[in-house]
Design brief:
- The protein is globular.
- It has three domains: about 300 residues, Glycoside hydrolase, family 65, N-terminal domain (Beta-galactosidase, Chain A, domain 5, Distorted Sandwich), CATH 2.70.98; about 30 residues, no CATH class; about 400 residues, Glycosyltransferase (Alpha/alpha barrel), CATH 1.50.10.10.
- Helix 6 packs antiparallel against helix 7 and helix 14 runs antiparallel to helix 15.
- The protein is built from 17 helices and 31 strands.
- The longest helix has 22 residues.
- With about 750 residues, the protein is an alpha+beta fold.
- The protein has a nine-stranded antiparallel sheet. Strands 7-12-18-17 form a four-stranded antiparallel sheet, with no helix packed on it. It has a four-stranded antiparallel sheet with strand order 20-29-30-31.
């Protein structure tokens, strides 16, 4: 333990030493999101995170909020794995006297919180809240600054500064909230669903507990009844009033261990009138009373250190980190935070001519960077480090989030492919249990161990929506194409690609009469359609994965199974010769009219080769209902439409879908939290954020990652009013450059590359 403690402390001190004395220059307004008192009733929390630790914003800036650690999962009996809520560390409470109200219990009204402003600075990942707090005739100027450190990922800090407009003795509390076990816990791993989440038996079971699948404004998703957090049991906890420290060890239910520690810093020269340790079943807190003078400013800082099994040490190691942070000081820690995020923002997407789109893409990049840890092997959930989709890993990770990060932040994209390599044994076991060769990856994977964690009511997706296997292999290959890291391919990428190919070769069925291979009885990528044969997206993706395996075998010096090429060449892709467009799946399956989703065939990582005529027809059939207002595409559907429109040369529709991406119903105020749909309030939806980023990185530029390099596969597109789009510090095969789409003298969009 001493070596772990010493290593963590050394890393912490080195990160501060490298930060220097970075000046806090005024931030570009394209990075600032601001809340005012007008947002009190519609406040949708933003997120503060660093890929390992996450928490949420709150209106007062000082509340105790739910917090999570990467892949720290609760494995409750008969339940799916779910993120375990760790003790809440964000809160600092204040009251002007023992007879007044606590700040965090005061009614959220403009008369109480005067001159209110809260700013989420995306460039430095800090939350700053300022207001004049008025209670029983006593007023106090308040400023709260909080962040989760990117420079030293085990650390976070909250600083509360007060300027009382009176003389007297005030009280402050620095708690760790020990959340009570969540109730009711439901047996979701076994709860039957005759027709999925809308089935009567599933609905009746929820009703029996007073629950329903219903979105409640502003920030409760329609699946809150099943996306509740897991629990952390406290094993040991204590504090020291003389040193103003607290620490605890805990464990997620049937899961990994974790730890937290706090070191509190009082204003220089201030000695408390009284200090107490409040230790109950639900609270561990340091409470102090201090004497204050009128119009003098007092700053109180809460330094927090966090760890989990496999990432850091125990409570003693965390306590050493928290105390070291306190010794270094808040300003030093904040400078390191600014330096770390400034380095991240070297790779940026800059839009000249559309401030709304610029702010939207900055917020999307921010949430992606905040939720994906660099150079790790933990999975990335569709809603990041939150309880959305119970923190589980879908194909969203490989086909949506990974490509969005690959060119701009390859270290974070590497974590996504490494997760699939680390959890390959679990996928191999699933394939064997299903009677197939190779590896069958879960539809809904645990971000820690890679096991299947699907609701029993959605079991059909686990069995049938198997295109995820191809999505994973394609992502592995894309990483190789972008990095040419042959050592990684041999050790990590090749085993995944090889076993995915083995699965497809055993899963495909040869129809001798039709002289073709078919993949039968799947759930389509259009999920309402189950038990279909030859889903176009599934078959096209499987064929590409098989061809990738043959190419990868040559690179690593392995023998390719000849069946891979045979099956790839013979896989059936449903097509209408009369209409010159693809079919979604076997035409014998009943389907709703005007209900097509061919746009995914043009998604950058797949990019199915086809003629211009077919490409245009596929797009028109997919976009028609939405364009006519008969269907309003959700966040996830906008990216494929935007990219397919760009590949088809339809600049008017590109602008249409981009504008839809930044509309208020997609980005919840005040902090541009992207939700899955306008109505379901499933926030921090990284899939949608990544889709918007992909629309710019690959859609407007026309760039694709191929064997020959980062090629210009389609003409660039630039919406009217946009002067330019620039991707800064793109990394590709070890080289760094900027890519700009602007207009030539005739007004035609052009793409230019400049080495850095």
């Amino acid at each position: 333990m001493q070596s772990v403690k010493a290593g963590l402390r050394l890393g912490f001190l080195l990160s501060f030493a490298c930060a220097g004395t970075m000046a806090n220059a005024a931030t570009d307004p394209g990075f600032l999101l601001t809340a005012t008192a007008k947002n009190f009733d519609s406040y949708f929390p933003g997120e503060l995170a660093n890929g390992y630790v996450s928490t949420f914003t709150s209106p007062r800036g000082a509340e105790s909020n739910l917090s999570y650690l990467v892949a720290l999962m609760d494995y409750g009996k008969d339940d799916i794995a779910r993120p375990a809520a760790i003790p809440g560390w964000t809160g600092i409470d204040y009251r002007a006297s023992s007879t007044d109200a606590w700040l965090n219990l005061a009614p959220l009204k403009p008369a109480v919180f005067q001159d209110y402003q809260q700013v989420l600075d995306l460039h430095e990942a800090t939350l700053t809240t300022r207001y004049r707090y008025v209670d029983h005739g006593k007023a106090t100027q308040v400023e709260v600054v909080s962040f989760v450190s990117a420079a030293s990922p085990h650390l976070a800090a909250v600083r509360l500064s007060i300027t009382p407009e009176f003389d007297g003795v005030v009280e402050l509390s620095f708690p760790l909230v020990l959340w009570a076990p969540y109730q009711p816990r439901l047996p979701l791993a076994k709860l039957p669903g005759d027709t999925g989440l809308t089935g009567d038996r599933f609905r009746q079971a929820l009703e029996a507990h007073g629950l329903a699948l219903k979105a409640l404004p502003p920030a409760t998703p329609d699946r809150a009844a099943i996306w509740y957090h897991g629990d952390t049991r406290i094993l040991d906890a204590d504090g020291n009033t003389s040193n103003l420290t607290m620490w605890l060890d805990g464990q997620a239910t049937n899961g990994p261990r974790m730890a937290e520690a706090v070191a509190v810093e009082l204003p220089r020269g201030v000695r408390p009138v009284e200090t107490k340790l409040d230790q109950t079943g639900n609270r561990l807190a340091l409470d102090v009373r201090i004497k204050v003078g009128k119009r003098k400013t007092y700053a109180f800082t809460k330094y927090v250190a966090l760890s989990r099994e496999g990432w850091g040490g125990d409570a003693k190691a965390d306590l050493a980190l928290a105390e070291a942070a306190r010794a270094g000081g808040f300003a030093t820690m904040l400078d390191a935070q600014r330096a770390a995020w400034a380095k991240l923002w070297r790779s940026d997407i800059r839009i000249n001519g559309d401030p709304q789109a610029q702010l939207a893409v900055h917020s999307d990049l921010y949430y992606l960077l905040a939720n994906v840890a660099p150079d790790s092997a933990w999975g990335v959930g569709a809603c990041g480090l939150t309880t959305g989709y119970a923190g589980h890993v879908f194909w969203d990770s490989d086909s949506w989030i990974f490509p969005a990060l690959l060119l701009l932040h390859p270290g974070r994209s590497r974590s996504i492919v490494m997760f699939r390599g680390r959890t390959l044994p679990a996928a191999q076991q699933r394939a064997q249990q299903a009677g197939f060769a190779g590896a069958k990856y879960p539809w809904e994977a645990d971000p820690g161990n890679g096991s299947e964690q699907v609701l029993f009511a959605a079991h059909r997706l686990s069995v049938g929506e198997i295109h995820i296997n191809a999505d994973i292999a394609i992502a592995q290959w894309q990483y190789w194409l972008a990095t040419h890291d042959l050592a990684w391919l041999r050790k990590d990428g090749w085993p995944v690609i090889r076993d995915v190919a083995g699965f497809w070769a055993s899963r495909a069925t040869y129809d001798a009469a039709k002289r073709r291979y078919e993949i039968r009885d799947v759930v389509s990528v259009e999920e309402p359609y189950a038990h279909v044969d030859d889903d176009a997206f599934t078959n096209a993706s499987a064929a590409k994965a098989l061809r990738i395996a043959t190419a990868a075998a040559t690179l690593v010096g392995a023998s390719a199974d000849p069946r891979w090429a045979t099956v790839a060449a013979g896989l059936h892709l449903p097509f209408s010769d009369a209409g010159q467009h693809h079919l979604d799946f076997d035409p014998g399956v009943p389907r709703a009219p005007d209900d097509h989703d061919f746009a995914l065939l043009a998604f950058p990582s797949l990019d199915l080769p086809m003629s211009e005529t077919v490409r245009r027809n596929d797009y028109e059939l997919s976009a028609g209902p939405a364009r006519a207002g008969r269907d309003s595409p959700a966040t996830m559907g906008l990216a494929p439409l935007t990219i397919a429109a760009a590949a088809s040369g339809n600049s008017a529709d590109v602008a249409r879908w981009l504008q839809r991406n930044v509309s208020p119903d997609m980005l919840k105020p005040p902090f541009n939290v992207r939700t899955e749909t306008p109505g379901n309030n499933a926030g921090w939806f990284l899939t949608g954020s990544a889709g918007f980023v992909q629309s710019l990185v690959y859609g407007l530029t026309g760039l694709r990652i191929e064997d020959d390099g980062l090629i210009q596969a389609y003409p660039p597109v630039l919406p009217d009013g946009w002067k330019s789009l620039t991707l800064t510090d793109v990394t590709f095969r070890g080289k760094h450059f900027d890519i700009t789409v602007d207009r030539d003298a005739s007004g035609k969009p052009r793409l230019q590359r400049e080495p850095r």
